[in-house]
Amino acid sequence: MADAVECSLSGYPEREMVESSTQVQITSKDALNRQFKWYKASLEGVKEPTRTLLERYSKIPDDQMVKHVMGVAPYPCIGSFRFLEITIYNSAAYPEILARLKSGDKYLDLACALGQDIRHLIFKGAIPSNLYGSDLRPEFFNLGYDLFFDRSTLKATFIASDIFDDTSALLRQLAGKLDIINAASFFHLFDWDSQVSVAKQVVKLLRPVSGSLLVGRHSGNVRPGKRDGSELRGPIYRHDTVSFRRLWEQVGRETGTEWEADITEEKWEDLQTHADSDEGAFKMQYVIRRV
Ligand SMILES: C[S@@+](CC[C@H](N)C(=O)[O-])C[C@H]1O[C@@H](n2cnc3c(N)ncnc32)[C@H](O)[C@@H]1O
């Protein structure tokens, strides 16, 4: 690739406990990302509950935290530090999820990227070996190990897979075995039909019993509909609470299953840092439960 620059992310230079270094390709597309309003060139601070997680789980002193994060992931394809947000922490189902994960339920973070929610759940008492993360891009798993200093200690399992691939390792290993799936900032990457396909894979992955749970948050919009030519990708569909409920009704009809959808609308704090957003955008939180 002529215009690609090899970027060596050597963890945290002044710490002897660095466990690995991760090679990441910075491409011309990454450079392009710098022009968008959501790209942040630097990090001002780490907010709770991630601050406590990095301090007590990863043993990174408070005054060295920003330097550490910038050392692991300073490149623009993760340009707004979204990987420092524990997405599940703000879910209405968080207390239930934590209780279920302490007593043996199996959990998948679908499209987990660096896997920050998995570390948070372990820190809060979830049984690590029952936690799985999956993403299209396995290099994110390596960055997660670098960020949290847990390559040799983490007992959760990461599986690189394309969610649309029926023959994937994810489907082969976990179909019908999971109790809870978290899919944060994922459905909104796709158009309506692809979102239906993702939802059907979720149905296959979850145990076919009442109480199986999908939770997540993503960008919603008060003006639901298809958007063409977005900043970073092909056509996408932005939902309001009504259209996302309708999508799950369609999935229920087409899979012979029934789902109860609890979908809420929240204000995004720093809307300008979100890709493909406008003044109608809001943060959608959802809890989709099999009846
Ligand atoms: C916006 S990030 C969200 C990351 C994480 N869930 C979070 O909220 O911090 C979207 C993630 O989806 C992954 N992804 C995109 N297409 C995918 C696919 N077809 N199958 C699995 N993961 C995919 C990307 O690699 C990326 O890590």
Automatic annotation (TrEMBL):
GO terms for molecular function: transferase activity. InterPro entries: Meroterpenoid_MTases (IPR051654), SAM-dependent_MTases_sf (IPR029063). Transmembrane segments: none annotated. SUPFAM superfamilies: S-adenosyl-L-methionine-dependent methyltransferases. Pathway: Secondary metabolite biosynthesis. Keywords: S-adenosyl-L-methionine, Transferase. PANTHER family: METHYLTRANSFERASE AUSD. Belongs to the class I-like SAM-binding methyltransferase superfamily. This is Methyltransferase domain-containing protein. It comes from Penicillium atrosanguineum.
